[in-house]
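Deliverable D2.4 — example input (structure tokens):
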């Protein structure tokens, strides 16, 4: 892990995509500010997100198990070690929840407070003090370190752009994998953790990680390329391939994508988790046009009614010779 440090762990392309997203978002926000009327919807959107996050945090505090000195202290110690490694001095709250067999974790924030949630099945697969769990915590803390959640909220107009939005999301996830690997200081454990995410609880001990990584390098058809471009996450085989590249002291390399897939991804339908933000783009455009066009249509209708009423009045009061 000599190739990574806190300063170099972020994937360079994340900053490149971020600059483009910022540029587009500034332009869109400026246009909305001049239009004034759509600003109401933006404010309502922010309020909705705030309320949604508040309800999520409430459910965590009411239903989840808060980790501390008297609750899984080994996991709390692992969290403090990873925070120290990543130079995060305000320790987020850590919760464990039961997920019905899902292997996942996520980071959240609400009113300046940060939270990390680990699904209980991951603790069963890794163990609370393992290098694998440190990789997982490091990944989620990477989102907090890079302020991904607040950036994605503020910059959502740019993230709605076809291809660019999902490319930025994928770069963020790839950066956080590097944060996780750096935090665990164990590439083999990081790869094992990712294999568990790919193939189940025993996959880290039974499946062949290099063979799985080769799927990313070898299976490069049109539909695979289309799926990658439509997704807000790197494929699991790509993430394992990237981690194995770090083990060899190399930067991750991108494989060939079918050129036609870019055209299809440009007009595809999907979202952050299922691929492509293009449906949201269409909704946003339709909403903006409606916000501008509907008042004009109503004004025209009212003017037409007023003129018709004036004509009727002239006919009623027309003097008779």
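Example output (designed residues):
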């Amino acid at each position: 892990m000599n190739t990574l440090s806190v300063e170099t762990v972020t994937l360079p392309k994340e900053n490149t995509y971020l600059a483009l997203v910022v540029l587009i978002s500034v332009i869109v926000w400026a246009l909305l500010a001049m239009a004034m009327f759509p600003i109401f919807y933006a404010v309502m959107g922010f309020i909705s997100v705030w309320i949604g996050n508040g309800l999520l945090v409430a459910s965590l505090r009411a239903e989840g198990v808060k980790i501390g000195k008297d609750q899984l202290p080994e996991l709390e110690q692992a969290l403090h070690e990873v925070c120290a490694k990543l130079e995060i001095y305000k320790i987020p709250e850590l919760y464990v929840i039961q997920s019905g067999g899902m292997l996942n974790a996520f980071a959240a924030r609400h009113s300046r407070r940060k939270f990390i949630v680990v699904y209980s099945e991951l603790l069963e697969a890794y163990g609370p003090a393992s290098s694998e769990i440190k990789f997982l915590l490091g990944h989620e803390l990477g989102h907090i370190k890079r302020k991904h959640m607040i950036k994605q909220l503020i910059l959502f107009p740019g993230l709605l752009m076809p291809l660019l939005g999902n490319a930025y999301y994928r770069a963020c996830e790839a950066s956080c994998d590097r944060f996780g690997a750096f935090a665990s200081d164990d590439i083999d454990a990081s790869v094992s953790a990712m294999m568990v995410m790919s193939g189940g609880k025993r996959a880290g001990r039974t499946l062949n990680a290099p063979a799985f990584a080769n799927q990313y390098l070898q299976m490069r058809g049109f539909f695979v390329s289309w799926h990658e471009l439509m997704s807000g996450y790197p494929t699991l085989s790509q993430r394992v391939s990237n981690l194995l590249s770090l083990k060899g002291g190399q930067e991750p390399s991108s494989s060939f994508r079918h050129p036609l897939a870019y055209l299809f991804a440009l007009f595809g339908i999907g979202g952050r988790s299922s691929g492509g933000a293009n449906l949201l783009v269409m909704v946003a455009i339709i909403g903006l046009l409606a916000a501008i066009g509907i008042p004009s249509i109503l004004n025209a209708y009212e003017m037409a009614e007023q003129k018709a009423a004036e004509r009727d009045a002239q006919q009623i009061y027309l003097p008779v010779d």
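The beta strands are 65-66, 93-97, 105-110, 113-119.
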